[in-house]
Amino acid sequence: MGRIRACRICRDAPRGAKLPHEPRPILRVSSSARLLIASQAPGVRVHLSGLPFDDASGDRLRQWMDVSREVFYDETRIAIAPMGFCFPGHTAQKGDLPPRSECRAAWHDELFRALPKIECILAIGRYAQDYHFARLGGPLPKAARVDEIVRRPPEFSGESPKIIALPHPSWRNSGWLKQNLWFETEVLPKLRESVAKLIG
């Protein structure tokens, strides 16, 4: 994984605009991990700390999973690999830009072949969902909404590894969570059961 951490493609040979700051690829992986958190891209706070989900989104995700920080950051059990390894920068409206496409093209297929023991993928957000469902042979319909993907994943996913689709745990999704109360009653118990089996 040292090659990924040393990657400077977005600075030296970008597809389009150059990354607006020095690259800092962030991931935590081990060949022994059985659970993969496939997220979108680091935010600015994670870019500064170098620790994925070291923010309020991470607090909410750990609560969803019912795991401690210690367990969450044990990369021998839980791998964390975003679709974009570096913070992509901000839009004019101060939101985060989408994950950079260079990471997917240069690294992702190779990376996930190097994680042979993954039995379950927590696919957070549409970028990760599109990539992992397609990679495992079940591409998502372009018109599928977040609530459809999260609530009815068996329609889209294969058997191994299992994919659990999740909305992003950002505070920006608090409204979605309030409008979709089934997420807490239907999805979280199954998520916690799966996580407990894999890290136990």
Tell me about this structure.
This protein is an alpha/beta fold and 200 residues long. It has a single domain, classed as Uracil-DNA glycosylase-like domain (Uracil-DNA Glycosylase, subunit E, 3-Layer(aba) Sandwich), CATH 3.40.470.10. It is 40% helix and 8% strand. It is built from 10 helices and 4 strands; from the N terminus they run H-H-E-H-H-H-E-H-E-H-H-E-H-H. 32% of the residues are buried.
Quick tags:
alpha/beta; 200 residues; globular; four-stranded parallel beta sheet
Order of secondary-structure elements: HHEHHHEHEHHEHH
Overall 3D form: globular
CATH H-tier superfamily: Uracil-DNA glycosylase-like domain
Domains, number: 1
CATH fold-type name? Uracil-DNA Glycosylase, subunit E
Q: What structural category arises from helix and sheet content?
A: alpha/beta
Strand order of the largest sheet: 2-1-3-4
Percent helix: 40-55%
CATH class: Alpha Beta
Query: Can you count the helices?
Result: 10
Stretches with pLDDT under 50, minimum 5 residues: none
Report the major sheet: 4 strands, parallel
The assigned CATH architecture is 3-Layer(aba) Sandwich
Beta-strand percent range: 5-15%
